[in-house]
Amino acid sequence: MKQRSIPLHLIILLYALASLSATVSAATYYVATNGKDSNPGTSSAPFRTIAQGVSVLQPGDTLLIREGTYKETLHHGSEFIPSGLSWSQPITISAYPGEKVVMKPYSGGSVLGLTGGQQYLIIKGIIFDAINCSGDAVGINSGTHHIRFIGGEIKNASKSGVLVSPGGRHIPATDIEFINMKIYDNNRSGKGHGIYISTSNNLVDGCEVYRNGGYGIHVYAGKGRADHNTVRNNKVYDNGRNPDTGFTAAGIILSGGDGNEAYNNVVWNNPNGVSVSWQNPVNAAVYNNTIYNNSGAGITINYALNTLVANNITYNNGVDLVDNGIGTNLANNLISDPHFANPDSFDFTLRDSSPAIDAGIDLPNGTDILGRSRTGHTDIGAFEHDPENRPASPRRVRPVFGY
Length: 403
Fold this sequence. Notes:
This protein is mainly β. It is built from two helices and 33 strands.
């Protein structure tokens, strides 16, 4: 019997109806400190706990949390914290716009643990305060992937502010993004860092990472691989403050792995600035960074193969550049006075007299730390010079993996 094919216009119609159904079914729920978990979770009758709100979410849903301090954790694996289907149908857990939401449990190992293979989850505007916890503030492991943190804070952990790792199941968490976050005052015990990443394909973008006891941003394979991680557009300062850590920390380290990169970062007042070392890193790239007033080395290359080090300002450090790598490509780095606008006030933009202006080589990053275009002659350092001192356009964050 001859089979009939479905007409193309009918296929398009069915697809459109399915998409419309998915959009219509998306719901918004609410949590407030004066709510009740027996409520339906509406704006006028919100839930009381974040845990209850999270438990009802389906792909495409949003949970909005009203202002307040919530004495609870989210740390229960795949049976408790749901997953989205894609970046067009994620689960979103967000502070209500313009309101301060703090998760600060009385006790526990961490505030947030994503350990059950969750995926396509957006966590926005929440402050994770681990002052009463004994471990990392946020732990992500065991096959969890495509998680996006936006615009919150992670602070006061006994160990690391964030640990992205394979976990006990030895399945790496990957494709984790930290965008416009503040991560600070972590490593109370001398056993952690601001962000500790030991897996692949992760992003740290537009964050402020400071006053952590160990490294600010620590990319280190440990068990497994740590490849193709991107650290860009961050301010990293005053880290390495805990004398119990037992090593001399850096603001940023890219250790081990293949193809890790750090660019458009401003790194100052750490024991060391940016380090590419240990575990034989390959094909790392360190470019268009501004690295200033670190007590040790500004840039260190050790045990590394084929590292690109280009267009960096590294100035007024204990020593500005140390290269003990193999095949390092050093290009157009500035170690003399770059004529910063006002380094005493941590304004590292360039004066009109700066020798960094138009002195870089063209590289593929496209914009500077403020989102200014690098078309034409590229400046050295994290900031492109604007002779008219115009405000930068709002920087559009470009997630590595897109929506």
